[in-house]
Amino acid sequence: METEETAKLREQMMNYQEDVFRVCLGFSRNPWDAEDLSQEVYLKAIRKIGMVHEPGALRAWLLRIARNTCLDHQKKGRLFRLFQRSVTPGDARGASDQHDHAQARERLAKLKEAVRRLPGKQQEVFVLREYGHLSYSELAKTLGLKQGTVMSRLNRARKAVLGFMREGNDE
User: Fold this and answer.
1) Are 42 and 152 in contact (CB under 8 A)?
2) Is the pLDDT of residue 171 over 60?
3) When comparing pLDDT for 18 and 97, which is higher?
4) Each residue of 30-89: pLDDT tens digit?
5) What is the pLDDT of residues 91-112, one digit of tens each?
6) Which CATH number among 1.10.10.10, 3.40.190.10, 1.20.120.450, 3.90.960.10 corresponds to the domain 97-171?
7) Domain boundaries, the chain
């Protein structure tokens, strides 16, 4: 039988659907996989809702489940499939819009590749921060690290992403 507290926690969990989806999207790079992963996260969370003892820690707990679910997915080798791109027919947009759109797609593809190339620990802190919008203290709690370690990894990850992004531009 569900307690009143558990029912409230289940209700509060739904406030974090977008955060969970963004984290899953950050790891999977594919909106369809992100949806599947998000559903899996919520199924796991609902089964273990009794483990939450501090309602204020619900978001961090949920995002930790999201991270672990995505890492499990990655280990199974189904992560980082190429995004299926649909191209709008040429007559629907002007040549300038097509060029801008192509450049934006190219930059996005480059960014995705840069994030994919990050070492695992840097990648997870980068994705949770940039896609999950976790604060440094939330990152530390979610990853079980000291805040200084989180800041250091995030700094190295950002520098690496910038370096990867610049690689093709110097030629």
Assistant:
1) no
2) no
3) 18
4) 888 889 899 999 999 988 888 877 767 889 899 999 999 988 887 765 333 333 333 334
5) 444 556 676 777 777 877 888 8
6) 1.10.10.10
7) 1-80, 97-171
**Contact, 57 vs 134, CB < 8 A?**
no
Q: How much is the pTM?
A: 0.55
CATH architecture of 1-80: Orthogonal Bundle (1.10)
- Per-residue CA distances from 86 to 25, 98, 102 (Å): 18, 13, 12
What is the phi/psi pair of residue 143, to 5°? -90, -10
1-80 and 97-171: identical CATH topology: no
